Amino acid sequence: MGKEIERKFLVKDNSFVQLTTCSHRIRQAYLSDKPESTVRIRVSDDRAWLTVKGRNQGAVRDEWEYPIPVDDAMNMADRLTGGWSIDKTRHIVMYDGYRWEVDVFHGRHEGLILAEIELPCISAPFTCPPFIGEEVTDDPRYYNSVLASGV
Known about the structure:
Distance between the termini: 30 Å
Radius of gyration: 15 Å
Number of helices: 3
Shape: globular
Number of strands: 9
Strand order of the largest sheet: 1-5-4-3-2-6-7-8
Mean pLDDT: 94
Helix content: 10-25%
Structural class: mainly beta
Order of helices and strands: EHEEEEHEEEEH
């Protein structure tokens, strides 16, 4: 079992585009969106994963992630969830020694841009890039599982 220590922020402008080192399209579907046991299917480019996450304790939560065949992920999304509920482009930005993931959402969440940083420990110091806005780590409205449910 791994621990995910992640902080999430709104993005206030598009200046991240100039700092992007690579981008990937990501589609996600949820087998469970309960806060205590989120189960997600994700396809990015030609790879797929099944991810199980526990309840958030602030910026920390349990996480298990397993690679799965893309065909299996596509079938699970179609047959078990009715299709992809999250569609986004992830931009990778390296800033001050950390990897930032900037997600530009498509479809019904068009216009939403979120940035995440994964930290080695909860007290790790970091510097926010200039495009970072308000922190929303503890705001469940910005959890992907909540965005997927359409609530």
